[in-house]
């Protein structure tokens, strides 16, 4: 498997290349469809896997790639042939993969040089298999030059290349790229299924983590590894928002701005989940929540959080998340958000 520099050693260690279809949790109908297409050889030149982060899109794409490169030419990788072994070892000459690269504290992005490298690979004949497979994870995060380069190739694709595109943000993918790939939409995993998998692994707080994972096993695994301190900080901020002093705002803004982009985005995600929980609780006190272990605390917040106030805070949080994705001082953006949020609280 030829890899671009975007795939770090840490990423590969966190998620080894999956062995076969049994390594994917859920999505049974999608797997049946892909296995049938693989066996029949009726795959289009490009597939785009869409759905929330961490639900198994890239793992599914990788198993499909391994199936198609396998010498057995069936609907699943045999795991024994040289091609299967080379794919698992990361040295198959007909498989290429790129994921977004984070530089500094900004959002991860796929840049033009990475796309240039894989398109050069696409122009060459396969060395072992009947096709070359190029997996692009996070296709929505391409910069403009990279997206246009990919589009040009998708418009006139080589006959021996299959593109597997993966995205967490379908609407952010260039419409002309979307129109040239067949969409495979992945739904969230049931909360109970995620909790059962975590319990099988002996992970504590399985139900709480499963609820916060929002249908994503990958997110649940990350939460289990990192703990809930970031979530607790976001909820603590919400409970003290009405009493924040200006010096408190400066301190919180500096702390949030000093985190990585992923941490800032996760913090905002927890805050947005809590705001959604408040809206749900207002309609139904027994409703299912994201923060299942904090129901009593959120219920106590209801008198200070009328519906319109919650909606305004959700809107401001969405604006901040978009601004975090730009090359703007995150601490200053966080400070502006906290000041607006304090004004919303009156």
From TrEMBL:
It comes from the Bacteria. Its EC number is 2.7.7.7. One of its GO terms (molecular function) is DNA-directed DNA polymerase activity. Keywords: Nucleotidyltransferase, Transferase. This is DNA polymerase III, delta' subunit. It is an enzyme of class 2 (transferase). Pfam families: DNA_pol3_delta2. It comes from Selenomonas flueggei ATCC 43531. InterPro entries: DNA_pol_HolB, DNA_Rep/Repair_Clamp_Loader, P-loop_NTPase. PANTHER family: DNA POLYMERASE III SUBUNIT DELTA, REPLICATION FACTOR C / DNA POLYMERASE III GAMMA-TAU SUBUNIT.
């Amino acid at each position: 498997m030829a890899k671009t520099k975007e795939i770090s050693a840490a990423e590969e260690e966190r998620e080894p290349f999956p062995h076969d279809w049994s390594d994917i949790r859920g999505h049974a109908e999608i797997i049946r469809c892909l296995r049938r297409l693989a066996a029949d050889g009726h795959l289009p030149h490009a597939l785009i896997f869409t759905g929330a982060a961490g639900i198994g899109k890239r793992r599914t794409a990788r198993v499909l790639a391994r199936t198609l490169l396998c010498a057995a030419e069936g609907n699943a990788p045999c795991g024994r042939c040289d091609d299967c072994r080379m794919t698992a070892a990361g040295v198959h000459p007909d498989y290429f993969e790129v994921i977004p690269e984070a530089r500094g504290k900004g959002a991860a992005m796929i840049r033009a040089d990475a796309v240039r490298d894989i398109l050069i690979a696409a122009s060459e004949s396969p060395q072992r298999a009947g096709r070359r497979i190029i997996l692009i994870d996070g296709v929505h995060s391409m910069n403009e030059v990279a997206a246009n380069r990919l589009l040009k190739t998708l418009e006139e694709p080589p006959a021996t290349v299959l593109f597997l595109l993966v995205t967490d943000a379908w609407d952010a993918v260039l419409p002309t790229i979307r129109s040239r790939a067949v969409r495979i939409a992945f739904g969230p995993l049931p909360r109970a299924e995620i909790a059962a998998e975590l319990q099988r692994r002996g992970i504590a707080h399985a139900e709480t983590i499963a609820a916060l994972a929002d249908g994503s096993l990958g997110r649940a695994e990350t939460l289990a590894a990192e703990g809930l301190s970031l979530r607790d900080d976001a909820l603590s901020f919400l409970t003290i928002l009405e009493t924040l002093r200006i010096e408190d705002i400066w301190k919180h803004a500096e702390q949030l701005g000093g985190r990585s982009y992923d941490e800032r985005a996760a913090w905002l995600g927890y805050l947005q989940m809590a705001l959604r929980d408040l809206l749900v609780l207002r309609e139904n006190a027994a409703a299912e929540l994201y923060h299942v272990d904090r129901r009593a605390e959120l219920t106590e917040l209801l008198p200070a959080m009328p519906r319109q106030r919650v909606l305004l805070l959700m809107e401001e949080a969405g604006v901040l998340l978009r601004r975090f994705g730009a090359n703007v001082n995150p601490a200053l953006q966080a400070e502006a958000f906290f000041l607006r949020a304090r004004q919303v609280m009156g």
